Amino acid sequence: MKESKQKYKKEIGARIRESRTEMGISLEELAERVGITAGFLGLIERGNRCTTAQRLNDLAQILGITPNYLLQGEVDESHSRKDKLLHKLMGSITEENSGMYNKIFAQLSGYHLNETETKELCDFLKAALRILQEKK
């Protein structure tokens, strides 16, 4: 029983780490956004500590994945398409406008957008970032 619990914690932690690195978010940044220390997040990622369901939900929202993926590794196909759109948008983000991008997505992290809404948001943000870059 203890071995299976430890294996489960390690799997969850690995999915958090993998999602975080794919998003290009540092351990420290993610920990700050969730409201925990980087050390504690490191323990979670290594499978040495558990966390609350609310915190797992917060991590999933920030990382753009579903809580179900964190817990069971199951991917919702419609969610994957939204992730691809967001990652595509991230490719157009420069260091100069990354602060604005982070603020926008921090505000939107609690919303569950469908694929069309996500695409429209990405298109809008790309246009807004282009306009801001042209003004500089």
Description:
With 136 residues, the chain is mainly α. It has helices spanning 2-23, 27-34, 38-45, 53-63, 67-72, 77-90, 98-108, 115-135. Helix 6 (77-90) packs parallel to helix 8 (115-135). It is elongated. The model has no long low-confidence stretch (mean pLDDT 76).
Structural class, by secondary structure, is mainly alpha
Oligomer: single chain
Distance between the termini: 60 Å
Number of helices: 8
Main sheet: strands, sense, barrel: none
Number of strands: 0
Tell me roughly what share of residues is in helical segments: over 70%
Tertiary shape? elongated
Unreliably modeled segments: none
Taken as a percent bin, the fraction of beta residues is: under 5%
How do the helices and strands follow one another from N- to C-terminus? HHHHHHHH
Q: C-alpha Rg, in Å?
A: 16 Å
Q: Output mean pLDDT.
A: 76
Write the layout of secondary structure elements.
Blueprint: H1 2-23, H2 27-34, H3 38-45, H4 53-63, H5 67-72, H6 77-90, H7 98-108, H8 115-135
Question: Care to give the gist of this entry?
Answer:
With 136 residues, this protein is mainly alpha-helical. It has eight helices and no strands. α2 crosses α3 (38-45) and α6 packs parallel to α8 (115-135).
